[in-house]
TrEMBL record, chains A, B:
Keywords: FAD, Flavoprotein
BP GO terms, sorted: respiratory electron transport chain
Pfam families xref list: FAD-oxidase_C, FAD_binding_4
Protein name as annotated: FAD-binding oxidoreductase
Source species of the chain: Palleronia sediminis
Family to which the UniProt record says this protein belongs: Belongs to the FAD-binding oxidoreductase/transferase type 4 family.
Length: 474, 474
């Protein structure tokens, strides 16, 4: 089944069926992705006004065998939002469908359209006196449809789960143009196969999510934030278990000395929390209910952990401003990484007990191959590390071009050997299709391909993402 | 595609490939289900020793076009475990695969085989100092494979979620006999379609779950249990929101005066908590961490709710024995229901704010049709009610045989009109196939059928459960 390009002639045929404003200018942003690895193609950028128009466009694409690349905020890091080769597709932007359709504060439910920006959803929840806990660096531009389609993670997964755990129901347009009406706001609903979770994380390859019923939570009455210096990753994990046992831990992030030094190297105006940059630190946050005492909990943890030799220094935030300053350190590390320029970025997860061994052994294997710097940081409480490789001082990533793939393979192999995942929160996109083919379970891959062929027999939905497009070769 | 019966001749061919003890006597228990609505059929009952043997049996069944009915603890309430008509299938019991393969206490993960009994898994977690929170009436006989295949609920969903939320990874045999190795114990793993959640809740129609990596949690250090008298369902819901806002609420169950009167009527030796049986009460439980004070939390709630006119009386358990006595009231209500004999049982969920209107309006519609008694009880905090209809005093369910279906339809219609679900936690099985066809979203049903055909093209996996078997008519 070969797809056809969206030609001007085809677009002229579709035109009369489109609402005013649906046909957008093909601005460069629609064809780019943050890492600059690919340049996308588009026959047209269409931004439908409502679900019915999404369905019309999908039906047209199915009838004409034209590919569709769903487009949210464009923040994905694995190329799921750009199609660099093949017949020019429709880029289907959900940007005009950004309504918060309704909030039920008592039920802790909010229904948002796929184009709603995450920070707008957070705000709507806040205005209703509730919390929508999904939080990540790109929350000012990432959209709900993309966040669900990639099952986004972020800093609050520890307590509230991944995006899929925050979704009670979806509305979606299936690859044949049928609208799936599944905006359930129920906590329990055992009436057949879990199509919701199948579309969540499918990266737009099985349909287009157009709206979602999202879970809200009570807002923590107060938060307790601390950054603590730990002597080793082992100590960080021991500390994590103690911190978690106290309850209401919502974030537990690992920060490496390398990351803090990159902040200096990159010239970021970030106040370093410690007089001397430590080799390892953790940033943790409690979100506490009324009547619970944040400083008391942090002090109890600090005393317990200090007594056990797990913590040598620490800053316990005593104001919102201090808490924000500590989080600023964590939040600027990805920016510093970009300023330095990584050779290879890895978004891995491991059983948490495997992390110290991984850091030791994989670090040694990489060091034996190349003179590099490693910044390992991120969501330690979830077993999720961003494990990024950088050039030695005075060199650039281009000096490593011949070894980048081999370095990446060392990481992937070590992760696989430890029952980990080569993609914890970023997804597969186009970047990791071959990695999935290599490391994915064969029976699972076979099931995925059968499902793709069953739900999207023409292969029009985000061709080449997650699974190799039918007929394509490596 | 017509299935063939498992004849003696076919069984003789399979025999040499089976381990000692795999061929079981076809005891009546394998062909029954708790409500006595169906009598199952079996060409043979096979209880394989390990996953490889499950795969051999499934491959044989696929080659010979023989149906397979996966069998766990046999506790399902919708007939998913019995095939009353069609070609005699293999009943595939997981009872010999009951190992707890491994526990990682620090990671809060336990891997159990599908035949492990829930209470054994709870015990294994307890021995590791952890909690496996899934808890329901049949926990002494229900098995992990069945609990996952039906996405079981129970009394702790409020805090810890349904069975699917407690599962990090599965091992399964697919309908072609391929073994899916997915016993991941990761909190984040975005590497393609969510096949795990597709098999969870598929009621054995897409493959056989053979083992699962399950999530454990810290054990609450103390629990606070109370039964409170409320003037109305509205008050119960208001109370729920206040109770939930205090944090760590793990159960919130509605109990009706009708249920308490059934305990008396059925002659159950259960101590009534109140001098006079109230029309409505709730049973709630907090699971608190070290340092938190259960009596203080319950008293704060009681004072707050009393002041708001939401609670008129209450018993706050001051010992484990008292807590157990309060729970015994709740746990005996289903037994009392069976003693009375229901006309129709409904396992429904609703957006929680719809519950008072549903109880009022649906109750009135039913009363207009027949002289019945209604016992509405269950997991109010999840929006999940067991809404069961009983004969008037002095009559039996047989007196209502001509109206049972119409009464059930009134309930289903009212639930659907309020965006609820006709099956909250029990599943579809064979009982509710037609109900799913009637009330299910058409696009979702179409996707379900496409997936069934793609993964199980021969239709051998639990034929007739969830979806009508290919070629079968109503």
């Amino acid at each position: 089944m070969t797809l056809r390009p969206l030609t001007t002639a085809l677009l002229d045929r579709l035109g009369p069926d489109l609402s005013d404003g649906t046909l957008r200018e093909t601005a460069p942003a629609y064809l780019a992705e943050p890492r600059g690895m690919w340049q996308g193609r588009a026959g047209a950028v269409l931004a439908p006004r409502d679900t019915a128009e999404v369905a019309r466009i999908v039906r047209f694409a199915a009838a004409e065998r034209v590919g569709i690349v769903p487009w949210g905020g464009g923040t994905g890091l694995v190329g799921g939002q750009v199609m660099p080769d093949g017949a020019a597709p429709i880029v289907l932007s959900l940007e005009r469908m950004r309504a918060i359709r309704r909030v039920w504060p008592d039920e802790n439910v909010l229904v948002a359209e796929a184009g709603a920006i995450l920070s707008d959803v957070q705000d709507a929840a806040r205005e209703a006196g509730r919390l929508f806990p999904l939080s990540l660096a790109s929350e000012g531009s990432a959209r709900i449809g993309g966040l669900l389609s990639t099952n986004a993670g972020g800093v609050n997964v520890l307590r509230w789960g991944n995006a899929r755990d925050l979704c009670l129901g979806i509305e979606a347009v299936m690859p044949d143009g049928a609208v799936l009406h599944g905006l359930r706001r129920l906590r329990k609903d055992n009436t057949g196969y879990d199509i919701r979770n199948l579309l969540i994380g499918a990266e737009g390859t099985l349909g287009v999510i157009t709206a979602a019923a999202l879970r809200l939570f009570p807002r923590p009455a107060s938060r307790g934030v601390a950054m603590l210096v730990v002597p080793s990753p082992e100590a960080a994990i021991d500390l994590f278990h103690r911190a978690d046992a106290l309850g209401s831990l919502s974030a537990f992030e690992l920060i490496s000395g390398q990351g803090m030094r990159f902040l200096v190297e990159g010239g970021f105006d970030i106040r370093q929390p410690f007089a001397a940059i430590p080799e390892w630190a953790v940033l943790l946050e409690y979100g506490l209910t009324r009547g619970e005492d944040a400083p008391a909990r942090l002090e109890a943890l600090f005393e317990d952990a200090s007594g056990a030799g797990l913590v040598s220094d620490g800053v316990l935030a005593s104001s919102e401003a201090q808490a924000a300053a500590l989080w600023a350190v964590r939040e600027h590390i990805p920016l510093a990484n970009r300023a330095v320029g990584s050779i290879a970025s890895n978004d891995i997860s491991l059983p948490i007990g495997e992390i110290p061994g991984f850091l030791r052994d994989c670090g040694a294997r990489l060091a034996a191959m190349a003179d590099i710097r490693i910044n390992a940081f991120g969501h330690l409480g979830d077993g999720n590390l961003h494990y990024n490789l950088f050039p030695a001082p005075g060199r650039t990533k281009h000096d490593y071009a011949d070894r980048a793939e081999a370095l990446r393979e060392i990481v992937n192999e070590d992760v696989a050997a430890r029952d980990g995942s080569f993609s914890a929160e970023h997804g597969v996109g186009r970047l990791k299709v071959a990695t999935l083919e290599r490391y994915g379970d064969p029976a699972r891959l076979q099931a995925m391909r059968a499902i793709k062929a069953a739900l999207d027999p023409l292969g029009i939905m985000n061709p080449g993402a997650v699974l190799r497009a039918a007929g394509a070769s490596d």
